[in-house]
Amino acid sequence: MHDSYNRAIDYLRVSVTDRCNFRCVYCMPPEGVQLLQHSDILTYEELVRIIAILTKQGISKVRITGGEPLVRKGIVDFVHAVKALGTVEDLSMTTNGSLLGPLAADLKAAGLDRVNISLDTVHPERFRHITGGCGNIADTLSGIESALQAGLTPVKLNVVLSEAVTEDDLVYFTRLVRQHPVAVRFIEYMPIGYGGIGPGMKADAVRELLEKHAPGSLKPMTFTGKGNGPAKYYRFAQSKGCIGFITPISDHFCGSCNRIRLTADGKLRPCLLSNQEVDMKTPLRGGASDTGLASLFFQVVQEKPAEHHLNNSDTDFQRRMSQIGG
């Protein structure tokens, strides 16, 4: 399936819940956000039906997101049901990792291929602050270890370049990629949250500090594992892992974007950084045929914009990251 700009659309991000056990300061205001009613959230059966329809139209990669997907009961069975369709080539999940430790092996056995884990700092006090007082860094580090042991690889760590990231964190990540087959990806700060924390270092400064703490320089590489997305990857000589940089603002990658998003309440969105969305839940629950639901997918694909307008200060986002699925 190609959009009106001839981009092949083969990647669906599926939010299974708007709930999260963290209250990250750049994602939620201190008072929290208005949560969906349980009846508003698509059931697992409805989600599996939509995925089954869309994989017949060219979707081959599916990422499960939230909120935090691991807070929803029955998530392992849902992973198994999606994998059992036989049409998803790459099934992944984005998680904060805090609940992953005891579930990693079961998720792998159910058919999950790999995980992305959010980790914005390894300093315990800064971690607790940035997660709104809810997070314990030990739980997330345990989740990372369990993911590696279970074979949910490549394990990717997503680090938002906020002011919480310090040189001490970069020292830790330098050692980590040298010793373990992980991809640490530094993501440019996007001003679409609630301003609980500000932007931090730029990518060039991060690279300079990483090289300061490692012999040799970072060399460009081609990422050959599953999930070769918008990151530009580099590797130190002899390292088991690699470093990636994702720059959605300073050097956006809209021209090669291959994804659409399904929110937990059944809205299909052609772009993360846009207010465009099409309701799939109402026709789904109203008895629409598979052909009818597929036509909504065609509509969304053709409405996918050429690029985001995040640099436009007048943009008023109606939903925030936790309500979309990231």
From TrEMBL:
One of its GO terms (biological process) is Mo-molybdopterin cofactor biosynthetic process. The keyword Transmembrane does not apply. Residues 4-219 form the Radical SAM core domain. Its EC number is 4.1.99.22. Binds 2 [4Fe-4S] clusters. Binds 1 [4Fe-4S] cluster coordinated with 3 cysteines and an exchangeable S-adenosyl-L-methionine and 1 [4Fe-4S] cluster coordinated with 3 cysteines and the GTP-derived substrate. Its cofactor is [4Fe-4S] cluster. [4Fe-4S] cluster 1 binds at C20, C24, C27. It holds the Pfam family Mob_synth_C. InterPro entries: Aldolase_TIM (IPR013785), Elp3/MiaA/NifB-like_rSAM (IPR006638), MoaA (IPR013483), MoaA-like (IPR040064), MoaA_NifB_PqqE_Fe-S-bd_CS (IPR000385), MoaA_twitch (IPR010505), MoCo_biosynth_MoaA/MoaC (IPR050105), rSAM (IPR007197). [4Fe-4S] cluster 2 binds at C254, C257, C271. It catalyses: GTP + AH2 + S-adenosyl-L-methionine = (8S)-3',8-cyclo-7,8-dihydroguanosine 5'-triphosphate + 5'-deoxyadenosine + L-methionine + A + H(+). S-adenosyl-L-methionine binds at Y26, G67, S118, M190. SUPFAM superfamilies: Radical SAM enzymes. Keywords: 4Fe-4S, GTP-binding, Iron, Iron-sulfur, Lyase, Metal-binding, Molybdenum cofactor biosynthesis, Nucleotide-binding, S-adenosyl-L-methionine. One of its GO terms (molecular function) is 4 iron, 4 sulfur cluster binding. It is an enzyme of class 4 (lyase). GTP binds at R13, R63, T94, K156, R259, I260, R261. Pathway: Cofactor biosynthesis; molybdopterin biosynthesis. Belongs to the radical SAM superfamily. MoaA family. Catalyzes the cyclization of GTP to (8S)-3',8-cyclo-7,8-dihydroguanosine 5'-triphosphate. Monomer and homodimer. This is GTP 3',8-cyclase. It comes from Anaerospora hongkongensis.
